[in-house]
Specification:
heterodimer; A: 114 residues; 4-stranded antiparallel sheet; B: 113 residues; mainly beta; 6-stranded mixed sheet; 5-stranded antiparallel sheet; globular
């Protein structure tokens, strides 16, 4: 099993550009989520999904869209990149929702917005 | 909004010493408490998930306790080794927002040889 795979690992964008951060898991996990990690802020939840076709907002959803058309994939879309979205983004998954299962994290995507 | 606090923010410990740090969370509507170990340039790795008051979990030299009535959890490391150097994160979920995990800022542990 590859676990949770995030692509790309690094990306530089210009303000106003759009892009999609990819996240895929091969563990048949129902729950998937996106976090951003900023210095001094810890991990903050952007969006999450409890299964295919079901998504919801986390703490900091503005400027981001998600969809969950398959169990395996949970892409994060930046519609119009802003410098405030410069961050390290982590995708995580767990077997079921309810958060009594440990989260499995991807290796992260380091995103810089100029 | 659920607020999770960790203390101290950073800690330097001599190799061989034991140490502990704290995670505080709102005690009302508690659902679950997670601990993760995060090494530099890697991704967070799960240590424990606890749900019941009085829970104690152990993995090797690392153990954790949970007090849901007063809203805190302790992580203990016995006989610290250089490979224990990492940031330790805790995260909590409430019953009403049971699909949302809220992380603390972490405790950065450095083991001095």
């Amino acid at each position: 099993n590859a676990g949770v795979t995030q692509t790309p690992k690094f990306q530089v964008l210009k303000t106003g550009q759009s892009m999609t951060l990819q996240c895929a898991q091969d563990m048949n996990h129902e729950y998937m989520s996106w976090y951003r990690q900023d210095p001094g802020m810890g991990l903050r939840l952007i969006h999450y999904s409890v299964g295919a076709g079901i998504t919801d907002q986390g703490e900091v959803p503005n400027g981001y869209n998600v969809s969950r058309s398959t169990t395996e994939d949970f892409p994060l879309r930046l519609l119009s990149a802003a410098p405030s979205q410069t961050s390290v983004y982590f995708c995580a998954s767990s077997l079921t929702g309810g958060l009594v299962q440990p989260q499995h994290f991807g290796d992260g995507t380091r995103l810089s917005i100029l | 909004i659920l607020n999770v606090e960790q203390s101290p923010q950073s800690l330097h410990v001599q190799e061989g010493d034991s140490t502990n740090f704290t995670c505080s969370f709102p005690s009302s509507n508690f659902y679950a408490l997670h601990w993760y170990r995060w090494e530099t340039a890697k991704s967070p790795e799960a240590l424990f998930v606890m749900t019941l008051n009085g829970d104690e979990k152990k993995k090797g030299r690392i153990s954790a306790t949970l007090n849901t009535k007063e809203g805190y959890s302790y992580l203990y490391i016995k006989g610290s080794q250089p490979e224990d150097s990492a940031t330790y994160l805790c995260a909590s979920a409430m019953i009403q927002g049971a699909q949302k995990l809220v992380f603390g800022q972490g405790t950065r542990l450095t083991i001095n040889p």
